[in-house]
Amino acid sequence: IILIIIPGTRKDISSFFIKLTMRKPSISENKPIASLSSQDYLLDLRDLNGQFVNFEQFKGEVILFNVWATWCPPCRAEMPSLQKLYNDYKDKMAIVLVTDEEISVVKNFLDEHNYVLPVYFQASAYPELLHPKAFPTTFLINQKGEILIRKTGAANWNSESFRTQIDRMLNL
After folding, report:
1. Residue 105 pLDDT > 60
2. Quick count: other Cβ atoms within 10 Å of Cβ 148?
């Protein structure tokens, strides 16, 4: 009812409910979902300064690969957890956030929310294994190129349990 009476609350209320339903991602003890081939690393990206970057430069690292958009409420809801994770793990693993939006739109969004995140812009087609079916879609890839998590929808990437799993992967 509040959403109908006070339209300005729609954004805040929807973000609140999304955060309430966010789950803690976890790595299955089973086999990896899939393994990236050399071809799967041939994804061209551009950074916030417009410089070309190839996804292959992250090969051999633990990678959190997140496909998102500024207009996506679940994407926006998980951004604070991604920022906190990045603050503590930026020198230990690759956190790669990819969007296909205009650079100016993304820069304004990051500035507005005081986010300092490694955002890249899609410059070539996604490999089939990393193709998002919805926003956000996040992949956790280990040093061997094995996809351990493929998560669609918002998640708390800074949860204690997820950080423990990352620490194990990094031998910390």
Report:
1. yes
2. 21
